[in-house]
Write a structure and sequence with these properties.
Blueprint: E1 5-9, H1 14-25, E2 29-34, E3 50-53, H2 59-66, E4 71-74, H3 87-107, E5 111-115, H4 127-142, E6 147-153, E7 156-157, H5 163-173, E8 176-179, E9 185-186, E10 189-190, H6 191-201, E11 210-214, E12 220-221, H7 222-232, E13 238-241, H8 244-254, H9 264-269, H10 280-283, H11 291-299, H12 301-313
Parallel strand pairs: 1-2, 1-4, 2-3, 4-5, 5-6, 6-11, 7-10, 8-13
Antiparallel strand pairs: 9-12
Helix pairs in contact: 1-6, 2-3, 3-4, 5-7, 11-12
The structure holds NADP nicotinamide-adenine-dinucleotide phosphate (NAP).
Length: 321
């Protein structure tokens, strides 16, 4: 495949970092737009990456930076907003999609990969799912001649993910963990498989105009997933789901804690199972990795001991008893 010039929005995040590194390995030229170049300088170790500070919400700036690119990838997504009215979600997802399709059309960009999420639906129960659904519709209706592909992953896991790592930290601190929406179901998909699907779609015209759901091989509830994270770390913990009324209360309190570990909008999103009706990975010839094949490599007890000893050698952790 010829070398493409690709602009990635959200290329500094968990999925983005992996995707950018893969695109560079495939011989493409990659421009990453970020709100804070200094914070993400580590991306510059990748040969040929161009990392630019940019306000992607400014349609003029976006138009200039996308003009003439072969492909645009939009990975920007938020799980929480400032406030509770949905304005932040609509801006980050729907309004950005509108600016992006406009910039692709006017700047002659022929190809657009849009990251969505399973459950995205304009009539969904949360601002997150509704705004992701709006963004999907805008991409489908407003792209003109631009060849788009929409990706809808379930929960994405990997060494740098926030969910398993956050629960791993909580489990190390607390012997008992009550979970809101513990019965919510996912088919966790490895970040490597998500990236593989996006990379393959660049060379596959069959994915033009397609919406691809992306799921891993197993279906688990949130409670089962967190219990699994405890087992992998060699921890005996009590993990259980709480009734919805208690879960709602937990979210209502936690959304005022700095960093919003759980918000009411997250709680509402978790009311919809994140499962595939038709797994796009199979269609692309990708055999998805299981949790068991990956998670012990970054959360297993040996792994944790290795990380701690590395930190100690660097002087980054207390070495006393
Ligand atoms: N991780 C999952 O389990 C999962 C599941 C389903 C769908 N998805 C979707 O996959 C995409 C990537 O997810 P991820 O886990 O990689 O997310 P992430 O690590 O949080 O990265 C998101 C990126 O978006 C940029 N960003 C965030 N808020 C922004 C804003 N208000 N304006 C402009 N840029 C903003 C950030 O870039 P800068 O800070 O550099 O500006 C960041 O690099 C998202 O669209 C997400 O909704 C993820």
């Amino acid at each position: 495949m010829r070398s493409l010039s690709i602009c990635v929005l959200g290329g500094t995040g968990f999925v983005g970092t992996q995707l950018v590194s893969r695109l560079i390995r495939d011989g493409h030229r990659v421009r990453v737009l970020t709100r804070n170049r200094d914070r993400h300088r580590r991306l510059l170790v990748l040969p040929g990456v161009e990392l630019l500070d940019a306000d992607v919400h400014d349609a003029v700036v976006l138009g200039e930076l996308l003009r003439g690119r072969d492909v645009v990838v939009n990975l920007i997504g938020i799980l929480n907003e400032r406030g509770r009215r949905g304005t932040g979600f609509r801006r980050a997802h729907a309004e950005l999609a509108r600016k992006l399709t406009g910039a692709c059309r006017s700047g002659g960009v022929p190809r657009l990969l849009q990251m969505s999420a399973l459950g995205a639906d304009e009539a969904g129960p949360s601002h997150y799912l509704r705004s992701k659904g709006q963004a999907e519709r805008i991409v489908r209706e407003d792209s003109g001649g631009v060849a788009w592909t929409i990706f809808r992953p379930s929960l994405v896991f990997g060494a740098e993910d926030s969910l398993t790592n956050r629960f791993a930290s909580l489990l190390r601190l607390f012997p008992v963990l009550p979970l809101a929406r513990g019965g919510a179901r996912f088919a966790p998909v490895h970040v490597g498989d998500v990236v593989e699907a996006m990379a393959r779609s660049l060379a596959d015209p069959g994915t033009h105009g397609a919406t691809l759901e992306l799921c891993g091989p197993e279906v688990v509830t949130l409670t089962e997933l967190v219990r699994y994270v405890a087992r992998v770390q060699g921890l005996r913990r009590s993990v259980f789901g709480v009734p919805d009324a208690a879960g709602w209360l937990q979210a209502a309190v936690l959304e005022f804690v700095p960093g919003k570990p759980l918000s009411l909008d997250n709680f509402r999103s978790l009311g919809v199972d994140s499962l595939c009706a038709d797994n796009g990975l199979a269609r692309l010839g990708i055999r998805p990795a299981s949790l068991a094949a990956i998670v012990p490599c970054f959360l297993g007890p040996g792994q944790r001991a290795a990380q701690l000893s590395l930190l100690r050698r660097r002087g980054g952790a207390h070495s006393g008893p």
